[in-house]
Amino acid sequence: MTQALAVDSKRTKRLRKRQEKKASKSSLAYASGFLDLPHEIFLEILAILRPRDLLALSWVSQPLRQFILAEEDHITKTVIATRYAALAKCFPRPVLLEHVDPASRPALQSPLRSKVQALHQRPFQHIQPPDPSVVCTCLTCILRWNSLCLALDFAHWQDNLDKGEPIPMIPRGTSPQWNQQLIARHADHVAWSLMRPLWYAMILEAHLDSTIRSIRRHGLNKGNRRRRFRMTEEDVRAGTDAFLERSGPPTVDTPYHRDNYYMLEAYLPNRSWIADRGRWVYVQADQHDRDVQIAVLWSSSS
């Protein structure tokens, strides 16, 4: 009769290592096998995935990572157009300073603009201001930066809001370490999203999830008779923001404090409902260029 191997014997450890190595090789071969598909078909498959799934897939193997990075712009553009068309218009990205006309940069970085900027860069407890040496500081870009940071912060507190647990209050004039780390992490994500479209798409994905959870949460509050967005379970399963194009309540109120999160149902800035047209109208994409021109004119006249 064959003697059973000891659980912690050297022989069983060697056997376990061989099995793990074999499994690792087979999984890598399986993942790399996707790359044998026709290029267009593989791109279509990737475009179906959610942003966080694309990020996870990029960690499976080096060949997959290289492929996704090489095609990131194309894949992400398709994903956003399919899943987050409305949110992308509500949350456009600020512009990197390096992409601003060099002749306009001195006007944006002029000390004379500090008082003007202070009106829109006041020290929010839940937003870390952008680095003016990296991000354009025209009014449009500051508001865009704030909106993206708010989307991440709102997403962070969804579990508290769902469970009815209070969000920690920060006494006026204080800045606890946990909050500094939190808003710095959100600022890093937003800054990274200016260079990596996949990280931008993940912000839109997170905010769609926050909006769905918030609409559900407010829908369960029978005492809340305010007008709200019509959202069905089919809308949720679709995984897109198409239902947000329907008529609904105003969504431009900025949550200047985390206390505003409790009553916030849908934060969708940069748009207004035009009843005569029966649709939402969004802020034009070239608003950044106009604000830069205004900054240059203001600087030259000062």
UniProtKB/TrEMBL annotation:
InterPro entries: F-box-like_dom_sf, F-box_dom
Transmembrane segments: none
Annotated protein name in UniProt: F-box domain-containing protein
Biased composition (Basic residues): 11-20
Ranges where the record places region Disordered: 1-20
Highest taxon of the lineage: Eukaryota
Domain F-box: 31-79
